[in-house]
């Protein structure tokens, strides 16, 4: 497997092309001495249940995995907490306002974006929303619907970490 930073040929500090693999998680610039450590990007996933134990499910409007099932969520912005990030993503994709977040677990993931492999750390949250009946598909969501938990099929979800996270959630969640 190629080093995660193999596409980066020049030092981000001095611009030298003497930017070489240092170890499995960093590259080092032989010109200026700068070492850059590669870390995953933080992303969020929202598990939103209504009062009937139905899960809010999205259909992806964009690549990767366009057209497949997904859960609301996305990348955390700079200077944002994970809780703020999941609430913002839910609002952007569903129009719903998050009133409570409960961190559940995290999973590492590889996310292809514009032909570039982004290493992510996906943070799964159980979210409570203000009025679960007032949703609308926006941004990365082409469609939204509530699905009874007993009918959720992780294998129908297009992204690996979402499938794995749903399997874990369904196994641990008592309904």
List descriptors.
single chain, four-stranded mixed sheet, elongated, 10 strands, three-stranded antiparallel sheet, Nucleoside Triphosphate Pyrophosphohydrolase, 2 helices, mainly beta, 175 residues
Q: Care to describe what's here?
A:
- This protein is mainly beta and 175 residues long.
- It has two domains: 1-38, no CATH class; 41-172, Nucleoside Triphosphate Pyrophosphohydrolase (Alpha-Beta Complex), CATH 3.90.79.
- The chain has helices spanning 82-94, 160-172, and strands at 19-23, 26-29, 35-37, 41-48, 54-60, 69-70, 73-75, 98-113, 116-129, 141-148.
- The protein has a four-stranded mixed β-sheet with strand order 7-4-9-8, sandwiched between helices. Strands 1-2-3 form a three-stranded antiparallel β-sheet, with no helix packed on it. It has a three-stranded antiparallel β-sheet with strand order 6-5-10, with no helix packed on it.
- It is elongated, with a radius of gyration of 19 Å.
- The N and C termini lie far apart (41 Å).
- The mean pLDDT is 94.
């Amino acid at each position: 497997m190629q080093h995660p930073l193999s596409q980066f040929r020049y030092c981000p500090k001095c611009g030298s092309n003497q930017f070489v693999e240092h170890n499995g998680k960093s590259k080092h610039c032989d010109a200026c001495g700068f070492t850059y450590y590669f870390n995953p990007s933080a992303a969020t996933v929202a598990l939103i249940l209504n009062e009937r134990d139905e899960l809010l499910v999205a259909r992806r409007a964009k690549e990767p995995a366009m057209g497949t099932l997904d859960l609301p969520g996305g990348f955390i912005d700079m200077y944002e907490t994970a809780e703020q990030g999941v609430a913002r993503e839910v609002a952007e994709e569903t129009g719903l306002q998050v009133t409570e977040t409960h961190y559940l677990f995290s999973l590492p993931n590889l996310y292809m974006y514009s032909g570039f492999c982004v290493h992510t750390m996906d943070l799964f949250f159980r979210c409570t929303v203000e009025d679960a009946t007032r949703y609308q598909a926006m941004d990365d969501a082409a469609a939204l619907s509530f699905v009874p938990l007993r009918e959720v099929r992780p294998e129908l979800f297009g992204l690996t970490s979402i499938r794995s996270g749903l399997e874990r959630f369904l196994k641990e969640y008592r309904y």
